[in-house]
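Justification of computing resources. Each target in the renewal requires a structure prediction run like the one illustrated here; the chain below, 306 residues long, is used simply to show the kind of job we budget for.
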Amino acid sequence: MKLIKLIVLSLLLGGCSAGDFSDQNQVQPSSPSKIEDSTHKDSKGIMNFLLIGSDSRGEPQSFSDAIIIAQYVPKEGNIKLISLMRDSYVKIPGHPKGYDKLNMAYFIGGNELLKKTINDNFGIKVDHSVSIDFEGFANFIDLIAPEGITVNVSQKMIDDFNMKVKPGENALKGRELLKYVRFRHDDESDFGRVRRQQEVLVKVKEQLRNKFSHFESLAALPDFVDQGLNHVESDMEKGEILSVLSKLVFYPVKNIDSLRIPVQNSYVNKTYPHSGAVLEINLEENREALKDFLLKPSPVNREYNY
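Resulting structure tokens:
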């Protein structure tokens, strides 16, 4: 059985180049300014993934608690993470009010409407989406890191969630790590939560790479994907997921850059009757910041690397 898995995996890796899933330009202008296309699949193989963390506890509809675009360039070993603040006030296609919080798009129309809303407002073409709810997140973390993921826990966080740990560095398992990425009752509020989400995402990437860093361990990759699919929803087929994970192993990640949208000083806090408290963003300024971030060679700013 192991030999069969190795043969299948070798065929998968040999048959999928780094550009197999990038058929279109990845950054599409939403303003009159033209961006020079430097993202052809035969040159860089750029892939854009929409990562969604939903607040679902089993309900048929839920809001997106985390919205992250991960742009991956395997041959260059670069990952760029863009966190879109869920309270950003944007135009949602088909919404009776026109504008609402970004996470309302997911509540109304799931992954597809959220992808369209992001494309219409920010000009980012998403290749694939992956969503995971609270229970799925906890189970997935326990699957890839049975001993937990080490993070720095504050006293405020411990008090807020009644966590059974001491302040400082702790290896948190699934359910406790979920509290870490959801916490927002300090001076940083949602902005701190976004930073922690990006931090944990990078550490998950490291766990995956360590788990499958040897050829022998790759034999377990198909079974791992089967188990992982029990905890996430994705528009990707199993073979596509295997190909992406294999690239993470065979193309070492050299740089991870991160950006938060809206960028600093590009929004104001507003309140609307139909949506409550929102971040009313300067859309043009954020589009330009986003384009600049994606088109610059990595590392864009080492200060933001984890």
